[in-house]
Specification:
alpha+beta, 6-stranded antiparallel sheet, globular
């Protein structure tokens, strides 16, 4: 689980303008997924993926029936790529400092050109701003070096989350890239249903099952540093009372989550091992306090081991 190199620095305060611009760009992709993908439980159809290129949609059904449409935010080439399964593609520059609205309009135009009548709700979600994505001239800061540092950090986080969920034998999600909260997460389910904690559309659809979520985000207005996090739903009153390894992990009562700060991980000589220890210990703690099937909890530790 070791890491042979130093993980990149990532402070939301230092890159907040670029972070919010990139976040808004991901929302355009997410809106396309919502509009075109077949609906799945827990809104899984709306999730994006972090790949070796950047943020990507899954293949989406073309409205004109001509095949599949995919959209990528290529964070190496710093462009949005709209591709059809027939091989046609359009590329839209993200830099230097292009407004979200201009990029969104070009992406939607390319999608319609390649796949037919594509329509989205351009209202941003789970963010502090309200200007429609295709009219957004407020978010126009795009620093390539900051994006590349973010992508390197997010890639490390995604690898930790993927390795953690791999042996689990219950239902689980892949590493989802969530464009609303701009985080990466895996959700592990017990198989039991649960009452959503609120009645809004996202909550009542996304949180109707007993689960443990572990993830990572690059910081935001509430928490100014990147961090791994973990929470359980529904959680017992005792859930937040544990001391989890590694020692730097802590319960954040305001967020309602266990947190392992990015700076603490970077200071560890084995950052990937420290991050894995945190997400694994948080899951095992949740299974104990929320009375999950012990066999499911054990499977996350590779018991029984996968057949090879």
């Amino acid at each position: 689980m070791g890491s042979a190199h130093t993980w990149p620095e990532l402070s939301y305060e230092r890159w907040s303008a670029t972070c919010d611009t990139l976040h808004a760009h991901t929302q355009v992709l997410g809106k396309l997924a919502v509009a075109l993908a077949p609906p799945e439980p827990q809104l899984q159809h709306a999730a994006l993926r972090l790949t070796a290129r950047g943020w990507e949609t899954a293949p989406l059904p073309a409205p004109d029936g001509s095949g599949a449409l995919g959209v990528t935010l290529d964070l190496r080439a710093h462009e949005a790529v709209v591709e059809h399964s027939d091989g046609l593609a359009r590329r839209i520059a993200l830099a230097p400092d292009r407004p979200v609205g201009a990029v969104a309009r070009e992406v939607l135009h390319a999608a319609r050109e390649l796949a037919g009548d594509v329509r989205i709700d351009p209202t941003p979600q789970e963010v502090s701003w309200t200007v429609p994505l295709d009219e957004d001239d407020q978010h126009a800061t795009y620093d390539r070096a900051q994006v590349e540092s973010y992508f390197a950090a997010a890639t490390e986080a995604a690898l930790v989350l993927a390795a953690f969920r791999a042996p689990y034998r219950g239902r689980s999600t892949p590493v989802n890239a969530w464009w609303g909260s701009f985080d990466l997460a895996v959700n592990l389910f017990s198989g039991a249903s649960a009452d959503p904690p609120a009645s809004d559309f996202i909550t009542r659809n996304a949180m109707d099952s007993q689960e443990v979520a572990v993830g990572w985000w690059p910081g935001d207005e509430r928490y100014g540093s990147a961090a791994f996090y973990a929470y359980a739903h529904p959680a017992t009153p005792q859930f937040g009372e544990a001391d989890l390894p590694p020692a730097a992990a802590h319960w954040d009562a305001e967020l309602g989550e266990y947190i392992l700060d990015w700076n603490d991980i970077r200071a560890d000589p084995e950052p990937r091992a420290a991050a894995h220890e945190f997400v694994f210990s948080a899951f095992q703690h949740a299974c104990r306090t929320c009375s999950w099937d012990p066999d499911l909890a054990a499977s996350a530790a590779g018991q029984p081991a996968p057949i090879v």
